[in-house]
Each structure stands twice: as structure tokens, then as C-alpha cells.
Write a structure and sequence with these properties.
CATH superfamily: YgfB uncharacterised protein family PF03695
Structural class: mainly alpha
Shape: globular
CATH topology: Four Helix Bundle (Hemerythrin (Met), subunit A)
CATH architecture: Up-down Bundle
Radius of gyration: 16 Å
Strand content: under 5%
Number of strands: 0
Largest sheet: none
């Protein structure tokens, strides 16, 4: 079992993502983390060949071959494995969410990149959101999506109505806890334990 990524690994991964050439539009590490969680929550396993190209380019354009991209893919797959183990065991994990430099930033603004990555996975792989499991699905999705601008959810009336009932997190620690708790609740819906 590969070791969990260190802070140095995360920094290296961000440098590798930043080094990808235009016109590629890679995820940043926080969005990548939310994206991987969204991939892992699907009711059926998403093959690596389907989800991995969207890491280097949100539209899935191929990345150039070379040692840097191989290293990038290796780090991403290690994080994927780390998250997969935590979600399968319904254990806490530390989302890659970072405090913003702006002292006026809200906790919801700090988790926004992670949520955007999660939303990207839901758009590309909609099997989870296609489940009709009532409040068990709607409530944790609302907690996660509450960080998004309501205009980005214009076709989701039930989700918006649920978000309206929520209190925004008061601290970044509370916002992160909400992400993890909601992830594990969604795992219970998508991948019930026997």
C-alpha cells in the first residue's frame, strides 16, 4: 500500500499541474481532490482511463508524454488510492482545502475549489446524482454544493431549496468537516455496505 502523500508531494503535484502547457486546463490540487472524491463516489467504479485524462485537462485533451506527466499521474493515483481506502472504510480523510490569503474570505470560499472539482466529477460521471434516493442523497449533496453560486445550480430546484435550509459553516474546520461527513453519507447511498 503506497504511503500517503506528504505536503512536499502535494506541492510537487501542484508544480507539475502548473507546468502543463497551454491549451491544457488542469485542475489545481484542491479541485483535483474534490474531483477524485466525486469519481470514487460513483455507484460503479469509473475506470482509470476515463477519469485520469480530466486531471491534466478538464475537457480530457491528451497531455504530452514524458516523465513529468508520468510522475503527475503516479501522485494522482496514490491520492486516488488513499481516498478510496478512507471512503471504503468510512474513515476520516483530510481534504486538500487551504486557507485563503484574504482575511475576509469565508469558509465557503475556501472550500470552493474542492467543491468545483467535485462538481466537475458529477458533471462528467452523473451516475451518483442520477440515483433517486430522496433525502439520503439530497442533504449531503446540498451541504457540498452550498459553496457554489446559486446561478451555477439553476436547473436544480430541489437542491437549491435544500441549500436554503442550511446554515453556512462558521469556520474552515466546520466547512471541512461538512465535506468529509457528506462524502461518507454519499458513500452509504452509492455503495451501501453489506
Amino acid at each position: 500500500m503506497p504511503a500517503a502523500l506528504t505536503d512536499a508531494d502535494v506541492a510537487e503535484l501542484q508544480r507539475l499541474l502548473d507546468g502543463l502547457p497551454a491549451p491544457l486546463e488542469p485542475l489545481d490540487v484542491s479541485a483535483l481532490d474534490g474531483y477524485l472524491v466525486g469519481v470514487l463516489l460513483q455507484p460503479q467504479r469509473v475506470p482509470t482511463a476515463r477519469w485520469l485524462p480530466h486531471v491534466c485537462d478538464v475537457d480530457g485533451r491528451p497531455a504530452p508524454r514524458g516523465a513529468a506527466v508520468e510522475r503527475l499521474h503516479s501522485l494522482v493515483q496514490r491520492r486516488h488510492g488513499e481516498l478510496a481506502r478512507s471512503i471504503a472504510a468510512r474513515q476520516w480523510f483530510d481534504p486538500w482545502v487551504f486557507e485563503l490569503d484574504d482575511p475576509a474570505a469565508t469558509p465557503s470560499q475556501a472550500v470552493l475549489p474542492w467543491v468545483a472539482g467535485f462538481a466537475t466529477a458529477m458533471a462528467l460521471f452523473p451516475a451518483l446524482t442520477a440515483l433517486d434516493d430522496g433525502p439520503a442523497l439530497l442533504e449531503p449533496l446540498a451541504v457540498i454544493y452550498a459553496a457554489l453560486d446559486p446561478d451555477d445550480l439553476e436547473d436544480a430546484e430541489r437542491l437549491l431549496a435544500e441549500i436554503e435550509t442550511l446554515e453556512p459553516p462558521a469556520t474552515l474546520a466546520e466547512a471541512v468537516e461538512d465535506l468529509v461527513r457528506s462524502t461518507l453519507l454519499l458513500a452509504d447511498v452509492a455503495q451501501p455496505r453489506l
